[in-house]
Amino acid sequence: MAEPALSSAKRSHGSGATSLALRLRASGATPVEVITITVLTLLVLWLVLYPVGWLVWGAFHSGPPGAAHAWTLENFNEVLFDPNHWVVVWRSILVGVGVTVLATVIGAPLAWLTVKTDLRGKRWVELSAIVPFFTSTFIGALAWILLGNPTNGVLKLWFGIPINVYSVGGIIWVTALYMAPYMYLFTAAALRNMDTTFEEASFMSGAGLWRTLTRVTFPLILPALLSAMTLVFVISMGIFGVAAILGFPARINLLATDIYVKALLIPPRFGAATVSALTLVVITAALIMLQRWALRSGSYALVSGRGFRIKLYALGKWTQVAHAWCFLYALLAVILPAFVLIKVSLQPYPTPKFGPWTLENYALFFNNDQLYGTLLRSLYLSTGGATLCVLLTAMIAYIIQRSHVPGRKLLEQVSVMPIGIPGIVMGLAMIWAYITVPIWGTLWVVIVAYATLFMPYGVRALGANIVQIHPELEESSRVHGGSWFRTLRLVMLPLLRPGIYSTWILLFIIFIREISAAVLLTTTNTRLFPVLIFEQWSAGAFNIMCAGALLLTVIMFAVIMLFKWGFKVDVMPSYR
Amino acid sequence: MSSLTITGLSKAFGDARVVADLNLQAAEGEMLVLVGPSGCGKTTTLRCIAGLESPSAGQIRIGNRVVTAVGEGINVPPERREIGMVFQSYAVWPHMTVFNNVAYPLRATGVPRKEIPERVMRTLKLVQLDQLSERYSSQISGGQQQRVALARSLVAEPKLLLFDEPLSNLDASLRVTMRVEIMELQKRLGFTAVYVTHDQVEAMAIADRIAVMDHGIIRQIGSPRDIYDRPANVFVAGFMGTTNLLEGTVSRVNGEEAVVRTANGIDVRVAGANGAAVGRPVHVSVRPEAATVTTRAPEGSAENVWPGKVTLSTFLGDAIAYRLDVGGQKFEVQAPTTDVFAAGVDVFVAVHPTRCILLLE
Questions:
Q1: Closest-CA distance of chain A to residue B94, Å
Q2: Structure confidence at residue A351 (pLDDT)
Q3: How far is CA A268 from the centre of its chain?
Q4: Is A491 helix (H, G, I), strand (E, B) or coil?
């Protein structure tokens, strides 16, 4: 005697759609599941492929977005045969490689020191690696023009160190300083997860510390290191804030700023900007594929499953050196920049002297309706955007990790694609795709762009959390009478709550500080706070700029603290 | 009427066939144990019964209700199969108290609210956890978590209970205690159970009937006694306990008795040689405890007697394990501790033909 409710599933194997329905049904999915997954996959495909498709379309057409008609190869002609374009391309690659190498050299030793040695004051080291992660390269660059400009930089005036951040070296240096936390976090996670017995076996075989590090530890964490380096390279290739602030004064363009300049020329050369954008995407996509290929055999199982204690190496006489290294990093990435930002933000005009002091620069943001409106708008956008993005990515991550429905592999691949799309490229693509749509010129376009761009972060962070939740916890609910939805509501969501909170914070912070995608995408009505700070920089209002940068930092840390104390949520970024 | 009927069940993951055309029944109130090495398909079979895995072919009936019939597109979701299940990881929800864990199946199936506290507490009492009902899983021991999982699977009084290696995460002594408790509860409450384990000792202790699985098929099914004393094939003989497998060919058949000549030239007389034909290659299984070791050849005995040499003698406390060399063939014997023979001593091994099992496959 068959279950009556299910006898409706008995159908003849007729059309293709029916057989797919049968296949879905046979995979154990309920109709709710099938509908959710289908809608979600289509949504993600649309979010990612629609603007990218328009970008490609735009490259082959003459005229600006919204008014482009004639099919042409002129854009490619104009850009690819411009020798200057290739100078910019090679310079961008040089910056990407330089940043990746330098960030690894800074970040990986810090990770090893905090995880694997008896270094004292590890919490401080950790903190000085996390703070730059949140404050971002943009604010870092703002501080460093005050520290390292060649005429009246603090380092030159006070310490006589003649450095010039308005150079390719300066761009690499500042970007690497603030990308080092990525290397730190990924390396530390890999080291923490590695079973110590692998190293102990090496020592027992008579190898010393150096041999063990180079022959055992390093090869084991290499896959993690390579994915972190790929991420750093891709991000730094597309970075706009640093490249603009440190590059424009010296007329040094990178691909990201080149796109910006071409799009904002009078008259704008959108076609050329689009071809530049495609060049950038081709490079980042190629690198991601190269990394996938290099790691095609899959990463090693570093976790043995049983508990283990990490053996700490005694640093002995090297303690001083280690402390000096950590302190130097904290000094350059956190202490000096914070000092100079605070000092300048409290002064009415640029001066190397202490005083006179004023709070006017801060007051401006609250008294001026336009500035205050921008501040509030950024808060709304980040709060709402992070919430929507968490909801979306939670569903995607859940389906990727848990369902057996055919088609989830496609969903996975498409949802991580935006990793290879730099913010400024997405901004340009969104213009092509949405300029004729009524939501153009509203915050919704910005939210859609941000949600798409940072979807991979949410999917990875939440995916890592979902993996931690044993499948049997859900299966046990199903077997004992709980429907799919009840299981989601009463078992999955409560267990995932800490992960949802920490992902929300991560996305909130990324959204509120994002500038690359915002510079092209926002109009007067949708101007966002980082863009405002950027404009203060262009206008040379350094004191107001510093106050703005600090306000932004204070907001980010207020949110982190709110969650840490209010919801007891660890805010360490957990995507790895 | 049987409580569980599986016909023609197959499950393939990609090209790998994990369960192949499996047929199985469990009678009402029976404890049926699926045992086999890892990857033999026992857990997949159990998950198909639970509805957690969708089989590629076959039919599953619980009581007289069809819950899976692949050809007809029937696949009742797990929550509507009215079963209970104890998982290997216990799967006690860490964000709920013991009480709420156990109340979950009742709430999910819409049992009236008033009845819930009474039924939960009665079930908790059954597993002696009524004192800990307000604790969280992080505040109780592994054994207690196992009892919570057991109570949760029992509380809705399902007709069929599934156990997926429920004891494998417990330490040895607790494992025996919990095993006895599960057996007692099962006899008392009379539920039908399918129990999966890779531990053959646990299987023999707990089972009414054992199905030994390998590569997705059942190699033998029967009572623990049957399986151990009369294994149907080399795989079952080797998997269920240790045994000496002597390879040879049938050299003579004499009514009920056959003689097998091994590759090393030893003659083994075997009782109950049904179906053996002269010249056929066979195996003979001799359990270590079926053989005795002496220094003098027993004369005029009905037993098989072979000369051998002790190569290793291991004291086990309640017995001695000998490794012998019998005409070039390794031979394990488990003997009482009354006589002890050191390594290097020449001995005789004696086994009665009724304890030599002829294996045709």
A1: 8
A2: 79
A3: 29
A4: helix
Residue A460 reports pLDDT greater than 50: yes
- Least confident range of A353-357, B2-6, B129-133, B175-179: A353-357
A404, two tokens: 């057996």
On whether the CB atoms of residues A531 and A241 are closer than 8 A, the answer is: no
* B9, B44, B52, B61, best to mutate vs chain A, most A CBs in 10 Å: B52
d(CA A405, CA B130): 41
A27 at B interface, C-beta within 8 A: yes
Residues of B in contact with A482 (CB under 8 A): 79, 104, 108
Q: Quick one: average pLDDT of B164-176?
A: 88
Which tens digits make up the pLDDT trace of B81-127?
999 999 998 899 999 999 999 999 999 988 999 999 999 999 999 99
Only one residue has tokens 């290397």, namely: A183
* pLDDT tops 60 at residue A307: no
* Partners of residue B245 on adjacent β-strands: B285
Q: B53 vs A475: CB contact, 8 Å cut-off?
A: no
B157 near A CB under 8 A = no
Instruction: Tell me if A133 sits within 8 A of A186, measured CB to CB.
Output: no
> Residue A245: which residues within 8 A CB-CB, separation 6 or more?
A138, A141, A142, A145, A534, A537
pLDDT recorded at residue B24: 94
- Cβ pair A3:B53 closer than 8 A: no
Report the C-alpha gap between B287 and A244 in whole angstroms: 82
Residue with tokens 């919801």: A567
- C-beta of residue B263 within 8 angstroms of C-beta of residue B247: yes
d(CA A457, CA A514): 14
CA dihedral A117, A121, A127, A129 (to 10 degrees): -40
